[in-house]
Amino acid sequence: MKELVIAPSILSLDFARVEEQLKELNSSHAKWLHFDVMDGHFVPNLTFGPDILKGFKKAVDMVMDVHIMVSNPVFFADVFAKAGADIITFHLEAVEDIDACIRLCRHIRSLGVKVGVSVKPKTSPEVLLPYLQEMDMVLVMSVEPGFGGQSFMEAMLDKVRLLRKEIDAKGYATRIQIDGGINEETGKLAVEAGCDVLVAGSYVFKGDIHERVDRLLWQK
Ligand SMILES: O=C(CO)[C@@H](O)[C@H](O)COP(=O)(O)O
How far is the CA of 169 from the centre of ligand 1 (A)? Predict the structure, then answer.
């Protein structure tokens, strides 16, 4: 398993205090910044465009982890790769089938960007198992995508265990990320199940950023 990474989700950032909060994030132990991109169609919410990513990239020295919750992932992947994303995660449910999923993984890698594939709570990741070497990350959603502040779905940890078993058995470098309802307690359960990237929105931003990131990082 790789070193644990904390990826604060900017969905919960206080946009009246952007500069201050970005400075705090940049000097915290969080190495990644998680961008929730929503199109108002794949999910019932609308968020950030590429210019926000470009601006934030100038303000922080962090990995730009872009999660596109969109119905047209090919279009958004190109736009966010051009804007400077380091990793782009799209939804399995947004592509036609597993062949289209693998084609998009290869396309994103061909742009020099790492790729992740995400599954919503009702989707099994089983179809991904034979293709994990095509992905740098699998994102297990532990809430229905769309909004921050929801409760963690503990049943999603079975998906994490399944993925961890396969990744370790094959010796792949694929990371497992979890997103939704992560706090000290749920983060610990997720790490024990095999996650190596924790996305956290409300938990990080509704307290002291440095302290909250450290609590997630060192709760093992
Ligand atoms: O992608 C999403 C929601 O769709 C998440 O990234 C949330 O932003 C996480 O927020 P919390 O559940 O941690 O508040």
Answer: 30
